[in-house]
Every structure is written in structure tokens, then in C-alpha cells.
């Protein structure tokens, strides 16, 4: 009888695991993705009591963009994630757009309960009814399509209450006015909000986290042919103790290889305005955090330890140009691997930032390191990490392939290229929920990405997870992130043009 009971119990447990899913074709196995529905921008990320909280733009009822919620997940190590209940729901015509969250340690807002420090979430309230009547005039009665609202939690982020005196920041006259990111300014003991307003970033300050005063605009710099979104302003200190301020600005089109992308600026913030370093841009119009096509709206965690030396980052691993028509149906979109951001001086003595993926050692199942001339490596499962070092070649190719398709990485003439054109996208199965427009996906999907890199290539880290690849050159001085869609998983990794090199191969377990 006991054996029968155990058998039945195991059966139901296994059924429960299958219901959870996370084993569909193309589903990343160690990147965060929602159980069901649509996901885009990461939101409201903070750290407290050993937990990293990740919120995100979420529509649970379909696999395309819709009424926006704040989804919620928690992690102890930024690798294993636990799905939590939806944090903030839309109401009526009001969608809950992107924003940020902070830990109000001293209860400056007065919204705490005396037990836990209140967590304050600032988000853009988007009124879909007003959007339908918007006519573009500053004097329009419908100017408040987007305003900045506050919600707070008294139980460390488990449940949320919308502030009863919203909005906390009214719209000064912009149709696109969104994505508040809050930063603590230690020297002046005040909080800063960075807001994207069409083609500029607007800064506000507050002492009590409720009343916000306008400070200045950052504008007329960088790529502006599109709508600016998802700013993030924060300081970093280099290895010599020098402090610089970094400003992220995402833009919904016209990234280096097409579609959406995120540029960054480095300079100084005096508590009132941000000014970039004179030599920062050089001959470039913009510097980008990622030169692949699939890293957008990325921002950093607040309240993490040692966040002056390194800041923890995550981005949406997709692109607005084709994100709603990619061939995943039960769910759509994943996040990038979380990354550590650090500050350094390049060869021309200009400040830059580098991105390194967090350690994945906890999920390594197999590891092999060799120093040889081997140019063909058998692989399986599309869950791999490769670290190639001691590179001494000026031109080389790295190709992942199955019997019919391949994904290649090429370096020549100081240019990196990722080519994801050699997949049989026409054989992708249609979306059972709607007529799947294959021609829209094929025409909008960006097949090749290129990035100039004028330094000597010494190392390459490659993270491969089912349908995504992340490339980190020279400890993250150059990063390229791309998704791809295949008929069969890769079986072979081929390296050509690399003579004597060291390679570490790892097979990675699923976190689900």
C-alpha cells in the first residue's frame, strides 16, 4: 500500500513539473523567462536580505504585448529563479509601464510600518484611453497619457499598495514620458529620478521620496532618431579609486545593427546635471552596451553590496523589431544572463565600461580544459559555456552547426560578425493561437550583426543556451547578444584560423 501511495505521489509531482513547463523548444534553460505569456523590460530591481528581486513588464494572458503588469521573480544567486505572484496589476485603462524600486531604509517616505523598511516602486502609468485622444499639442487636455506613479510594499516586496496621491510627478508636456529610475546621491543626501522624455533624459530630486523637483535635461547627444527609454544613472569607481557617472539610454530603433538597443554615456553628475567627458564619444555618435540585436532596456539592481566597484545588470533578450513574432508560443522572451559592470580606461585613455557574466559554476555538469590545436569539438544540448584564451590570430571563424544549419562568429579587419542567416526559418511551425506571419518574421529578423573592435583579441567567452548566444570579448570590453531559431540543436563547434589556443568547455544544467 505504501509503495502504491509513493508511486501515485511521484506521478503527481512529475505531472506538476511538466505543467510548469520550461522544456519547450527554444526555451532557455538557465536564463530567466516567464512561465507563460509575454515579457519585456526588466523593472524595479532591488536587493535585500539575501534576495535579488526582479520585476518585469508582463502580460500573462497572451504571447504578445498587452495590458502591462509587473511580473516578479526572486533569486538568491542570480542564477536560480523562483516565480512569484504578479506584483502590480493594471486597472481600467491604466497600464503599468517600466520603472524602478528602492529600499527606503530610513523610512523617509513615511510609508513604512515600523517592522520592515518600505520598498518604493516608481512606475509610469500609461492611460490607454487618453492615448486614443492624444493630438500632440502641449495644451491638450490629454497630455497626461504618461505620468509617474508610486506603489509601496511593507512586506519586502511580496504585496504592493498603490499610493493614494498619485501621480507623484506630473507630465510637463511630452507624449513619451516614462521609465523612472531612482538613484541615491550620497554626497548631497538626496534621491535622483532619471526620466526619458521623447529625445532627452530629465532629472528630478527629492529628500522625502514623495515630492520631486525638476533639475535639468540631458539632450542633443547620441543617437536620437527614435524614442528614448529606460534610463539608468549610477556611479562607478575604477581600480584606482576614480569615480565616474554612467548614464544608460535605450532607444526603440536605430541601434547599430537595426531595431532597439541601448547606448551609454560616461561623465560627471554634480547633483543637478550630467555632463559627458569631452573625449568620451571620440569620432562616434554613440557607444552601445551591446552590439548584438537582442539586449534592450537593461538596467541595474539597486541596494546591492559593493555597487560602486561593480554594478549588477540584466536586459531584455529580444528586439522590438521582431520580438512579437518570434516562433515561441506558450511564452515570449527571456532575460540576458545577469552581468557585472565595471569601469576601465581604454587604450586611448577614455573611460569605458565592461560587462562580465556572473559565475555559472553552480550549474556546471561537465568541464574540460585543454591547450591544443583541436578545431572540431562535438557538442550537444545547446547548453554550453566556452572560454577561449591565448588567442594570437587576427582573423578567425567559430561555427556552431547541425547537419543543415549553422551560426557563425567571424573576426577579420578588426570587425566581429555574428551570422544567424543560415537557419531554415521557413520550416518553423505556425503559432497555433493566431495566423503566424512567417514573412513578417523573416523580413524583420536581423540576420547579421557587426561590431568594430580595434584592440587585440585575447579572449572570448561564449554562452550558449538553447536559442541564444552571448559573446564577451576581452573580459567584456565588447559584448554581442543574439537569439536564433533552429530545427535541430547544434552537434559541432568548429574553429578555424586559430592556431595554438586554450579552450575551456562546460556543459550547463537547467535551472528549472
Structural commentary:
The chain has helices at residues 2-20, 128-133, 438-444; strands spanning 37-48, 51-59, 69-75, 82-88, 94-103, 119-127, 146-153, 161-162, 177-185, 190-197, 200-206, 213-219, 228-237, 243-251, 261-269, 274-276, 287-288, 296-300, 311-316, 331-332, 339-345, 351-357, 364-372, 376-378, 383-389, 396-401, 406-412, 415-419, 448-452, 460-465, 468-473, 478-483, 492-496, 501-508. With 512 residues, it is mainly beta. The two termini are 32 Å apart. It is 6% helix and 45% strand. Strands 23-34-25-30-31-32 form a six-stranded antiparallel sheet, with no helix packed on it. It has a six-stranded antiparallel sheet with strand order 24-33-26-27-28-29, with no helix packed on it.
Amino acid at each position: 500500500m505504501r509503495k502504491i501511495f509513493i508511486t501515485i505521489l511521484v506521478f503527481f509531482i512529475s505531472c506538476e513539473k511538466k505543467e510548469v513547463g520550461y522544456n519547450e523548444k527554444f526555451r532557455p534553460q538557465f536564463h530567466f523567462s516567464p512561465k507563460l505569456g509575454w515579457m519585456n523590460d526588466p523593472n524595479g530591481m532591488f536587493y535585500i536580505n539575501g534576495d535579488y528581486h526582479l520585476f518585469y513588464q508582463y502580460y500573462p494572458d497572451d504571447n504578445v504585448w498587452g495590458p502591462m503588469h509587473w511580473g516578479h521573480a526572486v533569486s538568491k544567486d542570480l542564477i536560480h529563479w523562483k516565480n512569484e505572484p504578479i506584483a502590480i496589476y493594471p486597472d481600467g485603462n491604466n497600464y503599468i509601464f517600466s520603472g524602478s524600486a528602492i529600499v527606503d531604509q530610513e523610512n523617509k517616505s513615511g510609508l513604512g510600518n515600523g517592522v520592515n523598511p518600505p520598498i518604493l516602486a516608481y512606475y509610469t502609468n500609461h492611460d490607454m484611453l487618453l492615448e486614443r485622444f492624444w493630438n500632440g499639442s502641449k495644451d491638450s487636455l490629454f497630455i497626461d497619457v504618461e505620468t509617474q506613479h508610486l506603489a509601496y510594499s511593507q512586506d519586502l516586496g511580496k504585496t504592493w499598495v498603490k499610493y493614494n496621491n498619485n501621480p507623484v510627478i506630473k507630465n510637463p508636456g511630452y507624449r513619451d514620458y516614462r521609465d523612472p529610475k531612482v538613484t541615491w546621491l550620497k554626497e548631497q543626501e538626496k534621491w535622483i529620478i532619471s526620466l526619458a522624455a521623447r529625445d532627452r533624459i530629465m532629472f528630478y530630486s527629492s529628500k522625502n521620496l514623495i515630492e520631486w523637483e525638476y533639475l535639468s535635461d540631458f539632450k542633443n547627444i547620441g543617437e536620437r532618431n527614435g524614442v528614448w527609454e529606460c534610463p539608468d544613472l549610477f556611479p562607478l569607481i575604477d581600480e584606482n579609486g576614480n569615480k565616474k557617472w554612467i548614464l544608460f539610454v535605450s532607444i526603440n530603433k536605430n541601434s547599430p545593427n537595426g531595431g532597439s538597443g541601448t547606448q551609454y554615456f560616461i561623465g560627471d553628475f554634480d547633483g543637478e546635471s550630467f555632463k559627458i567627458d569631452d573625449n568620451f564619444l571620440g569620432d562616434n555618435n554613440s557607444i552601445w552596451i551591446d552590439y548584438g540585436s537582442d539586449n534592450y532596456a537593461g538596467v541595474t539592481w539597486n541596494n546591492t553590496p559593493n555597487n560602486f566597484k561593480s554594478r549588477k545588470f540584466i536586459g531584455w533578450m529580444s528586439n522590438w523589431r521582431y520580438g512579437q513574432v518570434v516562433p515561441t508560443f506558450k511564452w515570449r522572451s527571456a532575460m540576458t544572463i545577469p552581468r557585472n559592470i565595471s569601469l576601465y580606461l581604454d587604450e586611448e585613455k577614455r573611460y569605458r565600461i565592461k560587462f562580465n557574466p556572473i559565475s555559472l559554476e553552480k550549474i556546471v555538469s561537465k568541464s574540460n580544459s585543454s591547450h591544443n590545436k583541436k578545431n572540431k569539438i562535438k557538442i550537444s544540448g545547446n547548453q554550453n559555456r566556452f572560454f577561449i584564451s591565448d588567442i594570437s590570430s587576427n582573423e578567425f571563424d567559430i561555427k556552431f552547426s547541425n547537419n543543415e544549419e549553422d551560426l557563425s562568429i567571424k573576426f577579420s579587419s578588426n570587425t566581429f560578425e555574428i551570422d544567424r542567416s543560415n537557419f531554415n526559418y521557413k520550416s518553423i511551425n505556425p503559432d497555433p493561437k493566431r495566423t503566424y506571419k512567417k514573412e513578417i518574421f523573416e523580413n524583420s529578423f536581423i540576420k547579421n550583426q557587426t561590431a568594430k573592435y580595434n584592440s587585440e583579441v585575447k579572449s572570448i567567452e561564449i554562452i550558449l543556451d538553447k536559442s541564444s548566444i552571448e559573446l564577451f570579448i576581452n573580459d567584456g570590453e565588447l559584448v554581442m547578444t543574439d537569439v536564433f531559431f533552429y530545427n535541430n540543436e547544434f552537434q559541432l563547434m568548429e574553429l578555424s584560423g586559430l592556431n595554438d589556443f586554450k579552450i575551456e568547455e562546460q556543459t550547463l544544467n537547467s535551472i528549472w
